[in-house]
Each structure stands twice: as structure tokens, then as C-alpha cells.
Amino acid sequence: MKIVIPVDANIKETDVCMSFGRAPYYMLYNTEDSSYEFIKNTAATSPGGAGIQAAQTVVDLKVDALLTPRCGQNAADIILGANIKVYKTLHPSVQYNIKEFLDNKLNPLSEIHSGYHNHGNY
Amino acid sequence: MKIALLSGKGGTGKTFVSVNMAFVAEKAMYIDCDVEEPNGHLFLNPQIEAVEEVKVAMPKIDHEKCTGCRKCVEFCRFNALAYVNNAVKVFEDVCHSCGGCMLVCPENAIVEKDKTIGKIEKGRSGEVSVKTGILNMGEASGVPIVKQLIENVSIEEELSIIDAPPGSACIVMEAIKDVDYCVLVAEPTIFGTQNLSMVHELVKLFDIPYGVVLNKCLDDENPAEKYCEENEIHVIGKVMYSHDLALLSSQGEIVSRVDSSYYAKFKTMLERIFEEVHHGTTSRA
After folding, report:
1. SS3 B140
2. In this complex, is the C-beta atom of B75 within 8 Å of any C-beta atom belonging to chain A?
3. Which pLDDT score is estimated for B137?
């Protein structure tokens, strides 16, 4: 199974990024062999609609689950629409969340925020 | 003549100065371009005579023709399109109606459909005709409403007072691009002065004649006034902070209507603007 997590840096000890759409990297983790790689988020510096572009990246990775502390409405529409499950992270540590996920201890992300895209003027 | 009132931040008194200028002018059109929170109507209280909708074009995907090449998704700089479950999905709340996706689609699979993003209310308040732009909640941009508000304005009225949105972003540029004069309304605070410097930079860029109205002045040192001195900006008027004035405003009163000293003050400001604009025109000609 492939899972993806928004992260702050492209190192193994990195923390979960508080933002889904504007995370600098995504960690793509394979539960079969514990292998992982980092994907640069091209939407991180986008002037608007970052969540949409980031969700596109996640969908194109053909993952089974997304582990994230939060997710906006537009991104959720895309990800859930592609039948990817979204779980809420409980701790800043990426390794901790992976372990909890494998032990079925993470809950589905129930709270989808309405997004921040109307607050900027451009 | 078109005069725009702007300020770097909200709450400095753009609407206060605008409605008073419109009131003291013998005949004027007041145009509220602060489409996210238009409030000039609270003072002018116009009788609404007509309402027109403001529509923008949204992309509509013909899924029969779409081959999934994703050219539109890659092109959209606003990220309003995504390709999921073998279909292009449109996020209307972030689309800016640029039409680019339609141009890049090699299959002609994208057509336009109308979407209403707000409305314009037209009315009258004594000698002032009033136009109010109202953006629907959640919409990405009020620029199309401002465009429609200021369309054909010069031929409609001799004097138009444009109450611009706060800040110095695209929507403000749209509101001021064809005006003859800009009035920058400033507060006597350091923050207010910083915001004044932003709109000052903007009007210089547009090469539009401008002047400052110092609002809510106190007897203390005024950093906004100092900024004007340092940058040789013409201060066309000064309004002292007053509890009574704040009270009248909170009751939706136009102070020039109830207090002749304010009537005279705003009349003088308008005359100074007329002088500067006419002088500028002759010296340029």
C-alpha cells in the first residue's frame, strides 16, 4: 500500500507539515517494503489554488491514503473523489504517524476546512 | 471628471470623504467600488431604480470531446482545473475567467458558460446618482464588477466620485485606471502612513495627479502629514478627529448635510481638485 504525507523537509526525520497544499515536500511511503521517497510540491509557492494542484499531485501518485493534519475543501473534493482515504495525523513525527496508521489507530479526517483561497487579492 | 478615493488600509475614511464630496458637488455620481463591503449606500440611502447582474465566463467541459491531455490543467496559473477520475474538474471559486483553458484545448472541448458573481444597484439620492457594486460571498475576484461599474461613466455624468476598495491590489488599479485625480485618505498613525506610502507608490506608477486628505487628525504629531511634507505631496484637506463626527457617522448621517463648516470644508477640497486637474490639463496642453 502507498501512503503520502505532507512534510517540512526531504529528510527521514522530518516533521509532518501543518499545511497540506503548501507543504514543501510529500513523503511517499510504501508499506510493503518500508521504502520512501520525497516528491517536491510544485504548488507550494503558487499564488492561489495550491490545494488543488497539490491534490492533483497526490492523485497522480496513485496512493491509497493521505495522512495530513488538515485539508481544504477543494483538495478534499479531488482526493476523496479519487477514492483516496484521508487520515488525520496526531503528532508532528512522521515515523510515529506511519506506525499509528499501520496499527489502524489513525482516524479519518472529519473536519475539512473551507480553504484560504479567498483571502488573497491578486 | 472622475475622482477616485483610495487608501492603503480600510477604515481611514474613504467612504466618509467620498459621500461628503458627492453631497457637496451640485450634481455627481457616486460609485462604490468597495465591492466586498460597499457601505456608501448607508449614508446616501439611495432609492434603488435598477439592478443589473454581473456575470463572468466559466469553463464548461465537453467530456465527450475531452481526450485527457491535461493541457488546460497545466496552463491554469490559478489551479482552477484538475484531472481526476479521467475527467477535467472545474473549481469555479478559484477561476479568474481568463479564458486561457479554452484557447489551449486542442480538442475544442471547453466552452464558456455564464456565472453570476454579484450585482450593481443603481439609484438616486437627491442630486447624487448612486451605483453600488456588490460581490457575492466566496467569489475569487471583484474586478469584473468594478469594470462594469466604471464602464461608460464619463459620458453619463460630469463628476464621478469613485470610492475605491482598500489596498493597492488589482481591483484598486481597475478602479483608478481612467480617473483624472486620486485622493489618498490617510490616518495619523505609523501603520496608516505605511499604507499611505503604498497607495502613493501606486498613483505615481499610474501617473495620475493626486492629493492627500488627512483624516482623524489629533493635536499630536501626525506621521502621515510628515510623510506628505517629506514627499512634497499636496494636502488638499484635513479633518480633525471628533467624537461628534464619529457619532454622526455611526448614525449614517452625511456631516455636510447637518454641519455647514463641514460642507465648506469638502467644497474647498473639491475646488482644489478641480483647480489642479484643470491646471494640469492646460499645462500639459
Report:
1. coil
2. no
3. 92
The per-residue pLDDT for range B173-199, each reduced to its tens digit, is 999 999 999 999 999 999 999 999 999
Q: For chain A, first and last CA: distance in Å?
A: 40
- B61 SS3 class: strand
Q: What are the CA-CA distances from residue B122 to residues A3, A41, B49, B133, B156 (Å)? A: 55, 47, 6, 9, 13
ipTM of the complex: 0.84
- Concatenated DSSP letters of A38-71: EEE-TTTT-SS-HHHHHHHHHHHTT-SEEEES--
CA–CA separation, A30 vs A122, rounded Å? 39
Nearest chain A Cα distance for residue B213, angstroms = 25
Nearest CA in chain B to A79: B84
Looking at the partner chain, which of A53, A78, A121 has a beta carbon nearest the beta carbon of B84? A78
Q: Sort residue B152 into left (φ over 0), alpha (ψ -120 to 50) or beta.
A: left
Mean pLDDT over B119-136 rounds to 96
Place of cell 431604480: B49
**The three three-digit cell numbers of residue B214, written as one number:** 488627512
Query: In chain A, which residue's Cα lies nearest the Cα of B74?
Result: A53
The residues, ordered by sequence, that sit 6+ positions from B251 with a Cβ below 8 Å of its Cβ are none
Residue B283 has pLDDT above 50, yes or no: no
pLDDT-derived band at A111, boundaries 50, 70, 90: confident
Order of all β-strands in the sheet with A65-68: A35-40, A25-30, A2-7, A65-68, A85-88
Q: Which residue of A has its CA nearest to B80?
A: A49
Question: Do B84 and A59 make contact, defined as CB atoms within 8 angstroms?
Answer: yes
Q: What is the C-alpha separation between B162 and B4, in angstroms, rounded?
A: 4
* Mean pLDDT for chain B overall: 94
* Most A CBs within 10 Å, among B83, B84, B171, to test the A interface: B84
